[in-house]
Each structure stands twice: as C-alpha cells, then as structure tokens.
Amino acid sequence: MTIRLARPVRGVTVRSRKSPGNCAPDWGYAELDFEPVTDDESSSVEFACEPCEDEELAKALAEGALIELAGAGTHDPDRHRGHAVLARVVVRIIQQSQVDSCVAVYRGLGVLAVREMLSCIAEDRVPQPIQTRISIGFRP
C-alpha cells in the first residue's frame, strides 16, 4: 500500500549537536519541506539551496529521507510501517562542519526529518525542531 502526502509540511528542522569531549564527527543541520506529489510522480529529493561542499553529505541526507519514506528500510521494528509515503522532499538548508560532520549523521537526519513530518500529519500540527545527538553508529 502506498500513501500520498495529504498536505504540505514545511519547515522541518533537524540538528545533531556536537557531543562535548567527543572526537566523533556527529554535527549536522538541515531544514526540509515535504510536498504532495501528483499521481504520476514518485518520491524525490531536490535541493533549493547550495549543497554542502561535501556532496556525500547531501546524498546521505537524501538517502535517509527516501529510505524512511519507503517505509521498509528502518531497523527499528516499532517504526516499520510496511507502506510507502509518496512526497517530494525539498531541502531548504543544509549545513556542515568541515571536521565534525559525516555521512552517517546526515543519513540519520534524513530519517528523523521524515519521522517528524509523519508525526505532524498524524497529530495535525506544525513541525517541532528536532535536536539530538546522532552517533556515527546510528542505524535508521
């Protein structure tokens, strides 16, 4: 079963804060919008901003969002929906740290952004900022 996004959800912000005293690269920030798609479109990610200098981080953010939209890529059984949600993801802001950012963090940020969007739809509310610390061992 595939579900189409019923309404836009704009301004989803996700941030992974730097852990004090931790040498692991665990910092990241992104702001995303989620838009409904037409009948002939599939889920996609587009960048309405300048991508990071490190293209791998932008790809990881997109990958995390698309895996979570597919509904089958999560390793958390409580989060496994078994159905896909179709949406266009528009990345408005993506920031990186030259030394404190890595692919795993941005993949996790993509996952968390989709989860927040789905909560907004389910609870009929506006997005709340997500601030967490994503370890490099994070598995969506």
Keywords:
140 residues; alpha/beta; five-stranded mixed beta sheet; 7 strands; 26% helix
Structure overview:
The protein is 26% helix and 26% strand. The chain contains 2 helices and 7 strands; from the N terminus they run ββββαββαβ. The protein has helices at 55-70, 103-123, and strands at residues 2-4, 9-16, 28-35, 44-47, 84-86, 88-95, 130-132. The strands form 2 sheets. Strands 4-6-3-2-7 form a 5-stranded mixed β-sheet, covered by helices on one side. A two-stranded parallel ribbon has the order 1-5.
Walk me through the topology.
Elements: E1 2-4, E2 9-16, E3 28-35, E4 44-47, H1 55-70, E5 84-86, E6 88-95, H2 103-123, E7 130-132
Parallel strand pairs: 1-5, 2-7, 4-6
Antiparallel strand pairs: 2-3, 3-6
Helix pairs in contact: 1-2
Summed up, what is this model?
The chain is 26% helix and 26% strand. The chain has helices spanning 55-70, 103-123; strands at residues 2-4, 9-16, 28-35, 44-47, 84-86, 88-95, 130-132.
